[in-house]
Amino acid sequence: MITKYEFGKFTIDGKVYESNIKMLNEKVITYHYLEDHKLTLGDLADLVNSRPSYIIIGTGAYGVIKVLPAIKEFIENQKIKLIIQKTSDACTKYNELVKDHKKVAAFLHNTC
Predict the structure, then answer these.
(1) Cβ contacts of 111 within 8 Å, gap of 6 or more
(2) Which residues on neighbouring strands pair with residue 83, listed in sequence order?
(3) Which of 32, 51, 105, 107 is the least crowded, having the fewest Cβ atoms under 10 Å away?
(4) What is the pLDDT of residue 25?
(5) What are phi and psi of 2, to 5 degrees?
(6) How far is CA 28 from CA 17, 100, 112, in A?
(7) How far apart are CA 5 and CA 86, in angstroms?
(8) Would you say residue 36 has pLDDT above 90?
């Protein structure tokens, strides 16, 4: 569960992460800075390959990350529900789905 999100950092199970993160079956994976805030399918490959029911993309505090139509189409063609929200809302949604015992994965941008 994501305990807290504030600009630049996440708190999960008492540990602070100051980078982009991926959540995969409640496992936290730190992730590098995205050049020009561009998300690629390669950035999401491990999430897609884990075959979740949902993938959540947190686009940052101000929604700067843009998800290309090709990425949306690819994920939806895999029969995975895609949720794209600003990171604070994405964290809330992730927690809700985990509480409902859904198989969910997430990419969460930590800054803008």
Answers:
(1) 7, 8, 60, 61, 64
(2) 56
(3) 32
(4) 77
(5) -90, 115
(6) 9, 19, 20
(7) 11
(8) no
Which pairing describes strands 54-58 and 104-108: parallel, antiparallel, or unpaired?
A: parallel
Any idea which fold 2-108 has?
A: Hypothetical Protein Mth938; Chain: A, (3.40.1230)
Collect all residues with Cβ–Cβ distance below 8 Å to 57 and sequence separation of at least 6. Answer: 39, 44, 65, 67, 82, 83, 84, 85, 90, 106, 107, 108
* Rg of the chain taking only CA atoms, in angstroms: 13
* pLDDT band at residue 81 using 50, 70 and 90 as cut-offs: very high
Contacting residues for 112 by C-beta, under 8 A, at least 6 apart: 37, 60, 61, 62, 64
Q: Tokens 């990350």 sit at which residue?
A: 65
Q: What is the pTM of this model?
A: 0.96
User: How confident is the model over 39-72, as pLDDT tens digits?
Assistant: 999 999 999 999 999 999 999 999 999 999 999 9
User: What are the start-end ranges of the H helices in 11-103?
Assistant: 41-49, 69-77, 87-99
